[in-house]
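Q: Got a minute? One more chain.
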Amino acid sequence: MVNKRSKNEIKRQQILDAAVTLFTEHGYAATSMDLIAKNADVSKQTVYSHFGSKDELFSASVEYKCESLNILDLSLHDLSDPQAVLLKLAQNFTEFITSKEACAVHKICVFESTSYPQVSEIFYKAGPLRIINEVTLLMAKLHQQKILVIENPRHAASQFLNMMKGELWMQTEFNIKERISPEEVEEYLRNSVAFFIRGYAIK
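A: Always. Here it is, folded:
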């Protein structure tokens, strides 16, 4: 039974890896379950046994990409050092939103929203909304532990995430060739985190 579960997990990962690549390179409409099965080296029946529909697989692919970058992996951090916790979150989030996959899926949502309106909603729920919800919980914990004064954790989460996008995200979105350096990005994130903490500091 253990070996069977292990094989199922391996096949599931193969399917997700293939799906992420194909959705990124070809878009939602041009990516079929047959093509995903072929690229994952599994049968079409196996794909459907793990994911009941293309919509479900698309959603799982977005979640899988988020998890692979450990955007919300803050469980090992001591919340008493909000600078370290929030800076790590900012770095992970920036890496995700400027990744090739995230930018490609964002463009897919824009270009295919008329023909496939569910695609944007699936992406929003599996990616951005999930991240906002998790960061909201983090903000609530910082308030509950009296580390920062955050009376509206949801607003604070949105403020934090939007602040961290910065110039690099805009340059990536518009496919600008010359972009700010990694050193400038790091300095921006550190300054933004410090600014955020000052805004919610205990007076």
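A: Residues 69-199 form a domain with the Tetracycline Repressor; domain 2 fold (CATH 1.10.357.10).
Q: Perfect, thanks.
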